[in-house]
Task: structure prediction
Amino acid sequence: MSVSVGRTLVLSPILLLLFAWIQMVSKNSPIFLWLMYSSFVFLALATSLLLFSDVEHASKRLRRIFYAVVAIAIVVTVGAAFSIASWLPGGTRHWFYITPENVEINLEYGRTSSMKPGYRGSFSQKILDVNYPIGYALVSGELYGVHVYTDKNVYSNLTVRFYLGFWPNRHEYRSIYKIEEGAAIHNGTESSVDFRNYTPTIFWGVSDPAGRARLDKGYVVNLYIRIELEGPNYGDLKVTIPIYPRVYIVDVQVSSQLQDGLATLLCGVFTGALFYIPAKPIKPKIVRQFAPMFNRLNRFLSVQGTPKGFLKKCVKCDREIPIASEECPYCGAKQI
Result:
């Protein structure tokens, strides 16, 4: 069944515009995947109209307009594939705020990082584990200060190192840590430590979607605290740190490499179908142009695979040719 060229020239550009518009809208929409794949319905309809158009019986002017529309459709489809491959679709934004658990550390007596005698110990805590692809993330912590409690009366120089960590779930990326350090004199069982920077912040990627850096397997946010007490040995010592501040996390979910690959493959399929439209009337001309060369090549290959007993020598060029040949495939001489 064929479609009239006039109807095709009206409907196909509208369908192509819908496809391109939905592709652009999907980049930062919360339903970006649904939009991206539903847009291919319009591309499929436009391609089908162009494929089944009765262009052979149209006037020369309509044929020129028709092939111009086909060229535009090819450019739009290839452009969509390039956009999907280079500009990660996405737009679902997530917000988290988490209050970490209180910290308890059993300290060991030995050497501190300054090589002085004292206690040291550390604690790590995973506070968020995300397993969907992201293109941007911001991790920020409210760190106004911490209280350190010991189970014994201690007089010592206290150092607290606070690490806020962002760990991509892929081996080729390194983790990012924001480190803050505070010091105080621990006198008795309680001390308060202030920090220079009250809002340690970690960025991954950028806010502009065109520069997103995809993490296909998500990321982990963790908290690490290290305690050092320089001073005499008081025996076994335990430290408790209530963590009051919250950790705020914002990320943007994007499509995965597999999803982008499937979308790009769809673009490739439709591009191939669109290229078939101008190739169809050109094919007979190409065949006629190269037919003599293909015939000679075919005859030459048939000679190469023929047993010696079925060959004879050309009367003019003295090359071996099939014994039943009336004309030499090399020089074209008639055989006697």
Notes: The first strand starts at residue 90 and ends at 98. Residues 188 and 225 are 21 Å apart (CA to CA).
